[in-house]
Amino acid sequence: MAHRNWLTAGAFCVAIVLAATFSALKPSSADGQAMMLPVDPTPLVAVTGSGGHSFSIEIADTSEEREAGLMFRKNMADDHGMLFVFDRPGEVNFWMKNTPLPLDLVFIGQDGRIKAIKRGEPESEAIISPGQPVNFVLELKAGTAARDGLKDGDLLRHPVIAKASGAGSN
């Protein structure tokens, strides 16, 4: 009987360790901590009327990563952003709950063209939507889009965007 209790206790301990290990591997903001994704080695380039502007980006391409986004992030470099990648074009809705940074939300079509640029107010639960189907959303520090001259119709280049458009590498 004692042997079975030791086996049960041992199995239970192993289960706890495995659960803790695997939960630590998943990006999560449930604990109030900002999710930090790896910076993609290839910069995203915005081709605007005033020239090209490069951004280092984190790519959120799973539902868990898209859900957490930049929540709880208190600061971010001016040339940094997060690119949200969706499997297919569709209407998307964002909000800024638990996001203390004011943001520019750049809504991007499958072809890599900017469809709309919206402002996100910190901690707001107001829905932010482009009003048309998009494949990507680039979140930047508020004011970055205006500072760099990003406008509707401008082209954004990155291998992830090129793959969605069927153009290969941009």
UniProtKB/TrEMBL annotation:
Keywords: Signal. Gene3D superfamilies: Protein of unknown function DUF192. This is DUF192 domain-containing protein. Residues 1-19 form the signal peptide. It comes from the Bacteria.
